[in-house]
Design a protein that fits this description.
heterodimer, A: alpha/beta, de novo design (two linked rop proteins), 3 domains, 4-stranded parallel β-sheet, globular, B: 477 residues, Ubiquitin-like (UB roll), 5-stranded mixed β-sheet
Chain lengths: 432, 477
């Protein structure tokens, strides 16, 4: 076990996602505690004190996001759980939705109570089938048990929840794009200002939080902020769910206490690299974070500040481990195809930039690369960065320039010799 | 009043303004495609990126002013980014300016020369899309030229409310498309999107390949389509570019009509009827004075009219509500004493299927100057009686069978009509595009129109004609 476990703290069985078993694990006691013994302001204070950071990618302080909401400003407020998990390599929220949906619902109830929310939403990725069915069943159970609806647990607090299925757009995972989609529009992200906590869903103050971020709340309320701060490092408290994929022997979702040594995690928990090969590079948190080479991660621990110092980010926790012998040019081509396909097309730099990146990568992989292409890829990445409405335009640029910075020689080799140094290999076979 | 610094210059701003508005108001031009003063902010073209000290680059159109902010609109970083944005925009743009109607008045063209000026950095094939996509029987769409600024979709959602346009697919294959069941053809304001389009993606079928815009000049005018009296620009060929061979009618016909922005009346919009004025003005003209259908010289016809007026005991006049303020005044001044019974006649009735009224521009009275005519003359049908011996009909749209058979008729009209030959005296008049004048709209706002074309030799201006009719006939002493 990589450190203490807060969310994945129980053995998964065929029925462990049910309300009965969740209650048996102490579920919905935090809700009772919050509703009966705490004031909304006290809950926000507790969350702020815990130092909980958003788990969707930006790692922004949750407490500070919540503090923007004015409790009694006479407007309806909305809370949305962002379960549109679309970042390549990321599938951690899926684990929560499948195996512990009630922790999300309980946490959302506590958050709704704290933020004066009458209606909350879960925007779930349309491709998620089992997670949707499990979540929908959990919502029904919770309604039947009186955790949702009017006068919850005999208090004055009432709350309803809507589970909304997305239609398969990566940009809908961006908070304002999600809101547009939830409103029934094309999921075009919105310009800030105004911020979503001022004008969000239906032009009302809205908090959009990642599923994993929200799921921590029940634990924090049950055990207190002080106990939460003891987990993890001072600057990044708590645990994170990492969805590990790529060339490791035991890929899957792991809950890691922040501050845990990276290599130890990969070697012991993930069973090491396939075939015992050396690590070429690791995508730390979804492909939109910059890659780190095997040498760079050797001494690193898994915490936000350590990754920021190394020039990358823990992002969404989608860790892709890439072993030596993988062709980074082919990998980049696949990434650029993804960004091109998923660009919403609203703003100019991303609409044309992602397509341009993709076409150049296609050409290089087809053996028609030109020496100036590398400079061109840098040019597009540079001018995509910071000029777009949402972060997804930046992300394509980060991913491209991150790989280029570290594996430029591979691109040069491919362009010069019109073939991959590694035969375009993406697989990692034990025999080879 | 927060004070902000534009390129080091302190300027006053209002709290509700954006940096772009402040910059434009203070004469600092920041280029933009998608922003439009009368539409919501989309912020998708990213052309108006400016640098704010301490905050980096952001778009000016969505940046609220805050006191003391230091904005730079032409720093090296801003220039480099503008250049890059134009590289992105032209990446899949066909650059077919040679055959594009917008060339010469195209924002993209202007910005390219002003802020980029370099050939494309791309060596890859452009994304292809549909050309000549049929949006309605008035508008064609070229998706390759489209830069997806979404001005047109915002117009149909926010101004005309027809909700006729939307976006299909995503990324660089996004296309503007009509929404099912909401045809753009039923939107009476649809042609405004052609003007709004900053590039040549939306093309008016009327103007398609008709003329290069630099051969044309715009004359300010007023739309006579309804009592709103929207100010318009009539585009016609510049005299120095008159064609000498081919069809010379090109020199004296309306090439297109666009709105002339006027906050007091129509804002920046006009309706489609205003674009179709050629349908009204370019009907076959009457160009010959006649006595009972017999062509005569102008002087003879005027003389005959004077004689009829001088001899009449109970004359009645029907005054046109298409006459300009000057003409109506002239009639009152010179003929008001003779024609005590002068009634306003409605020249133009709504056509079948025409929208009568809405809350944007269109008004139920389809004549331009009813307000002024009502001020000077009586409304309603005149009371004919057995003694009525002369009826002067000014303008079209009057059923001659209502006139008592014993009455003589003086008819003043601009267009060829069967009634012309039935009148005892017929005098051809000039039309709005051949003279200057003013109309008063239903709100009392007076707007001016100017002549675009010369009038025919025997065609008369009503203002001068009424003065001439006042004088006693020749040889009457």
């Amino acid at each position: 076990m990589p450190g203490r476990q807060l969310i994945m703290s129980f053995p998964v069985t065929a029925t462990s996602h049910s309300l009965a078993e969740y209650r048996a694990r102490g579920g919905y006691q935090a809700l009772e505690k919050a509703l009966k013994t705490m004031q909304p302001a006290g809950i926000i204070k507790e969350i702020t004190a815990s130092g909980l950071q958003g788990r969707g990618g930006a790692a922004f302080s949750m407490g500070r996001k919540w503090q923007v909401i004015v409790y009694d400003d006479g407007q309806p407020h909305y809370l949305i759980a962002n379960a549109d998990e679309g970042e390549p390599g990321t599938f951690k929220d899926r684990w929560i939705l499948e195996n512990n949906p009630h922790v999300l619902l309980e946490s959302m109830l506590i958050a709704s109570y704290a933020l004066n929310v009458r209606n909350c939403f879960v925007y779930i990725r349309g491709e998620f089938d089992l997670p949707y069915r499990r979540l929908a069943a959990a919502v029904e159970e919770a309604y039947a048990a009186g955790y949702f609806g009017e006068r919850i647990l005999g208090t004055d607090f009432s709350c309803d929840i809507v589970v909304y299925r997305g239609a398969g757009a990566y940009v809908a995972g961006e908070a304002s794009g999600l809101i547009a989609s939830l409103e029934g529009k094309k999921s075009y992200p919105r310009n800030r200002p105004p911020r979503l906590t001022v004008k969000g869903l239906y032009q009302r103050p809205t908090v959009v939080n990642n599923v994993e971020s929200l799921s921590n709340i029940a634990w924090i309320i049950a055990h207190g902020a002080a106990a939460y701060k003891e987990v993890g490092t001072p600057k990044s408290p708590g645990t994170r769910l990492f969805s590990v994929s790529g060339h490791v022997n035991k890929p899957g979702v792991y809950e890691v206490e922040l501050g845990y040594p990276w290599m130890k995690f990969l070697d012991e928990d993930c069973g090491g690299i396939v075939g015992g090969k050396p690590i070429k590079c690791v995508v730390p948190g979804g492909v939109s974070s910059k890659v780190l080479t095997g040498a760079e991660i050797k001494e690193l621990v898994l915490s936000h500040e350590a990754l920021w110092d190394a020039g990358s980010t823990l992002g969404s926790g989608g860790m892709i481990v890439i072993a030596e012998g993988t062709c980074m040019v082919t990998l980049s081509q696949i990434l650029m195809r993804f960004y091109h396909h998923e660009s919403c097309g609203q703003c100019t730099p991303c609409r044309h930039g992602t397509g341009w990146l993709h076409r150049i990568m296609d050409r290089i992989v087809a053996g028609n690369g030109r020496p100036e292409d590398i400079e061109r890829l840098y040019y597009i990445s540079k001018f995509n960065d910071g000029t777009t409405i949402c972060g997804l335009g930046d992300a394509a640029g980060y991913a491209m320039s991150g790989i280029l910075d570290k594996f430029r020689d591979e691109f040069e080799y491919y362009i010069e010799h019109k073939r991959s140094r590694y035969d375009g290999n993406l697989e990692c076979l034990k025999s080879s | 009043m927060p004070e902000i610094f534009l390129n080091g210059q302190a300027v006053q701003a209002r709290e509700d303004q954006t940096v772009l508005q402040v910059a434009l108001e203070n004469g600092v031009f920041v280029p933009y495609f998608c922003w439009h003063p009368h539409l919501s902010t989309a912020g998708n073209c990213r052309m108006c990126l400016v640098e704010v000290e301490g905050r980096g680059l952001d778009i000016a159109c969505n940046m609220p002013v805050s006191a003391g902010m230091k904005v730079f609109t032409d720093s090296d970083d801003v220039k480099a980014h503008r250049k890059a944005i134009l590289q992105f925009i032209t990446l899949n743009h066909p650059v077919d300016c040679g055959i594009c109607d917008k060339a010469g008045e195209c924002t993209l063209q202007d910005y390219h020369y002003a802020y980029n000026g370099e050939p494309s950095l791309s060596v890859d094939a452009k994304v292809r899309s549909t050309k000549y996509y049929n949006l309605s029987n008035r508008i064609l769409l070229d998706n390759e030229r489209c830069i997806l600024c979404l001005r047109c979709t915002r117009f149909t959602h926010e101004i005309s409310k027809s909700m006729a346009l939307g976006i299909e697919r995503r990324g660089d294959v996004s296309n503007i498309r009509p929404v099912e069941d909401r045809p753009l053809g039923e939107d009476p304001y649809s042609d405004n999107i052609v003007d709004l389009c900053p590039v040549g993606a939306l093309q008016s079928r009327q103007f398609l390949y008709k003329s290069r815009v630099w051969y044309l000049k715009a004359t300010p005018s007023v739309c006579p389509g309804c009592e709103r009296g929207c100010t318009i620009q009539v585009w016609h060929r510049k005299p120095e570019w008159f064609v000498k061979s081919l069809d010379q009618r090109q020199n004296t016909s309306i090439a297109r009509i666009t709105p002339l922005e006027n906050p007091a009346v129509n804002g920046p919009w006009i309706c489609n009827k205003g674009r179709d004025l050629a349908r009204i003005f370019e009907r076959v003209r009457a160009d010959q004075p006649m006595l009972k259908g017999r062509p005569v010289p102008v002087a003879e016809a005027i003389d005959a009219a004077r004689r009829l007026i001088g001899a009449a005991r109970h004359p009645v006049a029907l005054v046109s509500n298409w006459g300009s303020n000057e003409e109506l005044d002239s009639f009152k001044r010179h003929l008001g004493e003779v024609f005590v019974h002068a009634h306003v006649k409605t020249d133009w009735q709504p056509e079948e299927g025409e929208r009568l009224e809405d809350d944007l521009l269109i008004r139920p009275d389809k004549n331009p100057n009813t307000a002024k005519a009502r001020e000077l003359f009586d409304m309603g049908e005149p009371n004919y009686h057995d003694g009525t011996d002369l009826v002067l009909v000014w303008g079209e749209g009057y059923d001659f069978s209502r006139i008592p058979p014993q009455a003589k008729i003086i008819f003043l009209n601009s267009y060829l009509a069967p009634e012309n030959g039935h009148a005892d005296v017929f005098l051809p008049l000039s039309i709005q595009t051949e003279r200057a004048g003013h109309y008063t709209n239903f709100q009392g706002v007076v707007s001016k129109f100017e002549p675009c074309f010369p009038k025919g030799e025997a065609v008369l201006d009503a203002e001068a004609l009424f003065k001439a009719l006042e004088a006693p006939p020749r040889g009457h002493t």
